[in-house]
Design goal:
Elements: H1 2-12, H2 23-32, E1 38-41, E2 43-44, E3 47-48, H3 49-57, E4 64-67, H4 73-78
Parallel strand pairs: 1-4
Antiparallel strand pairs: 2-3
């Protein structure tokens, strides 16, 4: 739901977006075509968004906006 709403909002604002709903898809795409900004949901179906972000930080300093439905603040702060 959050992914769909966010994608629609970005699209309606006229911003080109790529919705990558899994860690595997995101990892492959980010390495090939780094975006100007990454909007990252921590709850991905095939892995943890925090793990993806840690891997990303080994080679990129692109800005990341973290979205999460996680209840614990610690999880969001860790990201």
């Amino acid at each position: 739901m959050v992914r769909t709403t966010t994608a629609e909002t970005v699209f309606n604002a006229g911003i080109k977006d790529n919705v990558l709903p899994t860690v595997a898809q995101a990892t492959e795409h980010l390495a090939q075509t780094p975006p100007s900004l990454l909007v990252l949901d921590l709850g991905l179906p095939d892995g943890d968004g925090v793990t993806l972000l840690r891997a990303l930080r080994t080679w990129s300093s692109m800005p990341v906006l973290v979205l999460s439905a996680r209840a614990h603040e610690h999880d969001k702060i860790e990201a």
